[in-house]
Structures are given as structure tokens and as C-alpha cells.
Design the sequence.
């Protein structure tokens, strides 16, 4: 009995947690997309829908799933925002998709997690999660 109960408990928590980490499937609806390209030694952030471009900074709405499309312009880097719990390698010529979800508005620090040269230790990233209204205001302010 004990193994069955233990497995049921693990799956009850594990399956929803695993699904929330997967990128969107076609037909799932509007998921905000952000393209992040790593360079030695900075992050180029691009919002394809609004054509906003940022460096070393990602603004997202909290409580909303974001698909981050990760690629590299030169060597292998790794996208890591510890408090948002995900880490994924970034390769030149290939795109990996990572789903980000911030449970609360706030500032989340990120760091390149793959040694990529002399500037690696300074390759930092800031994720700023806004409330929905604040995010919309920020997006409109950038568009003007
Ligand atoms: Cu690095």
C-alpha cells in the first residue's frame, strides 16, 4: 500500500509542476513570447510582438506564463534565474524554449550558468515581474 500511496502523492504534485514548465503547445492561446540571445557577454532581449529590445533585462507580467526562446550568437551560454527555478543551455544556431512563470511581482536575478569566457562572471540578467496593469503600462511606454 505504501508505495502506491507514495507514488500517487508524488504524481499529484509532479505532473502539474512538470506541465507548467513545458513551453506552450499550438492552440493553447496567447502566450507572451520573448526571444533572448546570448552574446559574450550580454543578453539581447527582444519582444517580437511589440518589437521592444532590451539588454540584460526582461520585463514580464507576474502570474502569466512566458515562453522564452533561447539562442546564442557565439558560444554556449546557459540561462538561469534561480528564484524562477529554471536553467537551460543556449546554443548557437539552435533555439531552446523555456517557460518562465513568476508567482509574484518582484525583481529576480539571473546569471549565465555556463562558463563562456573571461566576462562570464559578469554576465548577469534581471527579470522584473510586474502586476498585469503595470506590465501593460510599461509596454505602452516603451512603444512610444
Ligand atoms: Cu557564461
Sequence:
Amino acid at each position: 500500500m505504501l508505495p502506491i500511496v507514495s507514488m500517487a502523492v508524488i504524481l499529484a504534485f509532479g505532473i502539474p509542476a512538470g506541465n507548467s514548465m513545458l513551453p506552450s503547445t499550438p492552440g493553447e492561446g496567447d502566450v507572451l513570447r520573448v526571444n533572448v540571445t546570448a552574446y559574450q557577454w550580454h543578453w539581447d532581449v527582444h519582444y517580437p510582438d511589440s518589437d521592444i529590445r532590451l539588454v540584460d533585462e526582461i520585463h514580464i507580467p507576474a502570474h502569466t506564463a512566458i515562453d522564452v526562446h533561447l539562442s546564442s550568437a557565439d558560444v554556449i551560454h546557459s540561462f538561469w534565474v534561480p528564484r524562477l527555478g529554471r536553467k537551460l543551455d543556449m546554443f548557437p544556431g539552435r533555439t531552446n524554449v523555456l517557460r518562465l512563470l513568476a508567482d509574484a511581482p518582484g525583481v529576480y536575478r539571473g546569471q549565465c550558468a555556463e562558463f563562456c569566457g573571461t566576462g562570464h562572471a559578469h554576465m548577469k540578467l534581471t527579470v522584473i515581474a510586474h502586476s498585469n496593469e503595470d506590465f501593460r503600462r510599461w509596454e505602452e511606454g516603451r512603444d512610444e
Summary: DSSP finds two helices and ten strands in the chain. The domain at 32-143 is CATH 2.60.40.420 (Immunoglobulin-like).
